[in-house]
Write a structure and sequence with these properties.
Keywords: Methyltransferase, Transferase. This is 16S rRNA (Cytosine(1402)-N(4))-methyltransferase. The protein is built from 5 helices and 7 strands. By secondary structure, it is an alpha/beta fold. Strands 3-2-1-4-5-7-6 form a 7-stranded mixed sheet, with helices on both faces. The protein is globular, with a radius of gyration of 15 Å. The protein binds S-adenosylmethionine (SAM). The site of S-adenosylmethionine (SAM) has 21 residues, from helix 2 and strand 2.
Length: 181
C-alpha cells in the first residue's frame, strides 16, 4: 500500500521507462540516487548536496559506479555543471536525516533550482519534489513552492499534487511536474 511520500516517489520512478539522465537535487544519504541507479535504465545520475557528510554517506552507499557523479554544491548552481536535457529531477527537501537539522533546503534556492530544472527538462521528463511542511522552514518552503507552481502556465506544464488527505500534522507530500504533451 502507498502509505508514505517515499512510496509515491518510488512508484513514479518505477513506472518511467524513459529515464536516461537523472539528477538527484538533494542527495542526503544517497537513497534516492541508489534507487534510481538500481531501478531505471539511467546511464547517468548526478547528485547535488551542500554537505560533506551527505557526500560521504552517498558515496559510501553507492560505492564505485561510473554512472554516478556527486557534486558538492547547491542545486541552485546546476547550470554550472549540466547542460544536457534531463529526464528526471528528484528533490527531497528538508534536512539530512540523522544530520544537522539547521542545514535545510530553503525556498529561495529551491525555487531557483526548480526554475533551472524546468529549463533543462526533456520533453517527456519529470520533476518530482517531496515537500515537508511539518517543520517551520518546511511550512514556508511549501507555501512558496506551491505559489510558484500554481502560477506555471497550464498550457505548457502539468503540475500534480499527491497528498495524504486524511493524515494529521502536515505530512510530507509530492509534487509532480512535466511538460504538457
Ligand atoms: C531530506 S534530505 C535528502 C534525503 C535523500 N534524498 C536520501 O535519499 O537520503 C535533504 C538534503 O538536502 C540538502 N540540501 C540543503 N540545501 C541544499 C542545496 N541548496 N542544494 C543541494 N542540497 C541541499 C541537505 O544537505 C540534505 O542532505
Amino acid at each position: 500500500m502507498i502509505d508514505h511520500a517515499t512510496h509515491i516517489v518510488k512508484e513514479l520512478i518505477l513506472r518511467d521507462e524513459n529515464i536516461n539522465i537523472a539528477v538527484d537535487m538533494t542527495a542526503g544519504n544517497g537513497n534516492d540516487s541508489k534507487f534510481i541507479l538500481e531501478n531505471t535504465k539511467a546511464n547517468k545520475v548526478f547528485a547535488f548536496d551542500i554537505q560533506e557528510l551527505a557526500r560521504k554517506n552517498t558515496l559510501d552507499l553507492i560505492g564505485d559506479n561510473s554512472k554516478f557523479n556527486f557534486i558538492l554544491d547547491s542545486h541552485a548552481n546546476i547550470d554550472k555543471y549540466i547542460n544536457k536535457k534531463v529526464d528526471l529531477f528528484i528533490f527531497n527537501l528538508g534536512y539530512l536525516p540523522k544530520g544537522d537539522k539547521n542545514i535545510t533546503t530553503n525556498w529561495q534556492s529551491s525555487i531557483i533550482a526548480i526554475k533551472k530544472s524546468l529549463e533543462l527538462l526533456s520533453p517527456r521528463g519529470k520533476i518530482i519534489i517531496t515537500i515537508y511542511p511539518g517543520h517551520p522552514a518546511g511550512q514556508i518552503e511549501s507555501e512558496k513552492i506551491n505559489e510558484f507552481l500554481r502560477n506555471l502556465n497550464y498550457k505548457k506544464y502539468t503540475v500534480l499534487s499527491l497528498a495524504f488527505t486524511n493524515k494529521i500534522n502536515n505530512p510530507p507530500y509530492v509534487m509532480l511536474i512535466g511538460h504538457k504533451i
